[in-house]
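Hello,

Our lab assistant flagged a job as stuck in the queue for most of the afternoon. It eventually completed. Since we weren't sure the result was trustworthy after the delay, we are filing this so someone can double-check. Below is the sequence as submitted and the structure that was eventually returned. Let us know if re-running is recommended.
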Amino acid sequence: MEKKERLSLATIEKKIFFIRSGKVMLGFLLASNCDVSTKRLNEQVRSNIRRFPSDFMFELTSEEYLDMKSHFVSSIVSKGGSRYILFAFTEQGVTMLLSGLNSEWRL
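-- returned structure --
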């Protein structure tokens, strides 16, 4: 199995956004970096929702989604819009998500 290349700090910084007065990473970007589908990531979050309180993760509102569309025209809009809910994860949420992807609570 080929080892995935580590992300550079500059690449990671480009994936951090300031939403609701805090720094977050969007779920579909995390999914692509973890070699899982956005659908799979969302399923895992939903089935383990107690691990993600509001200070770890939240869903983007319609207004936030529209604001973010301009950043990700090819990723979000390419097939008529996002097919999945866009989750935003705080630093703690990213840590929880990544630990979950590598643990027994994986689906």
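-- support follow-up --
The delay was a queue issue, not a problem with the job. The result is valid. Residues 91-101 form the longest helix (11 residues). Strands lie at 16-19, 22-26, 57-59, 87-89.
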